[in-house]
Structures are given as structure tokens and as C-alpha cells.
Amino acid sequence: MTGFIVQPNKAIVGANAFRHQSGIHQDGVLKMARTYEIMDPRTVGIPSNSLILGKLSGRHAFKREIGGIGLLL
């Protein structure tokens, strides 16, 4: 509305606010999202949280993402 570009790493409203890459965070979010997210992402216009797979990701996040594309482990 204001014409200002919101930085991706801006708290609560930035594009990266509900993305999790660390394995411990990913596991906590998968088990109980309220552990690391004090509010629902949809409240601020973000459709849902997301898990970023990388070198810090854990096996639970990997297993979920692989299952999401139809592969079984």
C-alpha cells in the first residue's frame, strides 16, 4: 500500500519470516508449529510456512518433502 519494498528477512511480514532451514526448527515446526511460530502465517498474508532443505536440515523435514513429491522412503 505504501509503495515500499519489504525486505525478505523482515520480521513477521518478510517473505522469509515463516521459512525454516535449521533441523531443530524444522522438527519443532513439524511436531507443533506454535513452538517456533507465535502466529499463523495466513494472518499476515503468507499462505503457509515452508521448510528449506539444505545442509542443516534434518531427516524429518527431508522425509516430509520427499513424501510430498510422491516418493516413499
What's the total helix number?
A: 2
Instruction: Please report which band the strand proportion falls in: under 5%, 5-15%, 15-25%, 25-35%, 35-45% or over 45%.
Output: 5-15%
Helix and strand run: EHEH
Number of strands: 2
Name the overall outline: elongated
Distance between the termini: 45 Å
Helix fraction?
25-40%
Nearest-angstrom radius of gyration?
Answer: 14 Å
What is the average per-residue confidence, as pLDDT, rounded to a whole number?
Answer: 86
Spans of 5+ residues with little confidence (pLDDT < 50)? none
Order of strands side by side in the largest beta sheet?
1-2
Oligomer: single chain
- Helix and strand content put the structural class at mainly alpha
Largest sheet: 2 strands, parallel
Task: Give me some keywords for this one.
26% helix; 73 residues; 2 helices; single chain; mainly alpha; 2 strands; 5% strand; two-stranded parallel sheet
Write the layout of secondary structure elements.
Elements: E1 19-20, H1 23-31, E2 50-51, H2 59-68
Parallel strand pairs: 1-2
Structural summary, described in words:
This protein has 73 residues and is mainly alpha-helical. The protein contains 2 helices and 2 strands, in the order βαβα. It has helices at residues 23-31, 59-68; strands at residues 19-20, 50-51. The longest helix has 10 residues, at 59-68. The radius of gyration is 14 Å and the shape is elongated. The N and C termini lie far apart (45 Å). The mean pLDDT is 86.
